[in-house]
Amino acid sequence: MHAVKSEAAILAGTGTDSSLAASLAAAIDPLKQQHDDDHEYNAWRDEHPCILQHFDTFLERVNGKRVAVFLDYDGTLTPIVNNPDNAVLSPQMRDTVRQVAHLFPTAIISGRGRDKVEGFVQLPELFYAGSHGMDIAGPKDDHSNLTPHNFQAAAEFRPMIDQLYHDLCKRLQDIPGASVEHNNFCVSAHFRNCATEHWQQVVVAVNESVAAQQAQLHVTRGRKVLEVRPQVDWDKGRALLHLLEVLGLQQQADVLPIYIGDDKTDEDAFRALQDHTGIGILVSTKAKPTAAAFTSYACSPGDRTSMGQSGLSSGLTMV
Ligand SMILES: [Mg+2]
Known about the structure:
Low-confidence stretches: 1-28, 299-311, 313-319
Order of helices and strands: HHHHHEHEHEEEHEEHEEHEHEEHH
Bound molecules: magnesium ion
Pathway: Glycan biosynthesis; trehalose biosynthesis
Strand content: 15-25%
Family: Belongs to the trehalose phosphatase family.
Cofactor: a divalent metal cation
Helix content: 25-40%
Strand order of the largest sheet: 5-4-3-2-1-10-11-12
EC number: 3.1.3.12
Number of domains: 2
Largest sheet: 8 strands, mixed
Pfam families: Trehalose_PPase (PF02358)
Radius of gyration: 20 Å
CATH architecture of the largest domain: 3-Layer(aba) Sandwich
């Protein structure tokens, strides 16, 4: 808890030890040496600097601001794992998120079903936005000073999503390694465990399943997953802005929202922050187009820590 109060003091603008931050950032960036001769990667890193190596810049931007924190789940708080049901949150990461939520309004915005993410995270003091933000609820902590809120942007699509899930289960059942996940208001077709030669079969099956309802459903691509969502004007960015409004923090010069995510659907949130002077942080080891201002590396699945050791945790422990 001492570290949390120190972080609060720094975010309030009372100073920081820049040499400590820089030395720690250098020590914990395992990609630096690997990419020393990779000009494309280094140009990308110049444009989207590693937040840990530029933590002073980050602190300058948050100095004196009221911060709200928005977090993706898979690949951000946990490593990407072969079986989505095994993407459990480490005790260390849970403790880190708990500390963040103690300081700032905090929400998880995930493509997963809200109930599943709530089950993984087990922190009732948070807001949760499942199904890419289409299913929002929280906090459920009786001691929270935040008003509980519920909102479902695509409730009328639930029967159609149920039907789609059952159809996709049938279509993918004979494709080795393929799996289907019901995320309440969207459906994920995973091909992470498929041999490469079967990937196209999954794409074809999903497209065929959606074909009859193209006016109402659309398909997006994530990290070895296809996600079918209702055709509604709603995404993680809209969910973030909705939560800011719920919190009474929208369009205020002294408010600074921060979003951390790793995948294409997180770009909607990064773009929303660009328009609202927030800070996006992309978790990635690879150079790729992003609207995020900063980046952070992701750990290998074996580390079981993902963003925790590189971003949130380091921010809390380096002071
Ligand atoms: Mg993710």
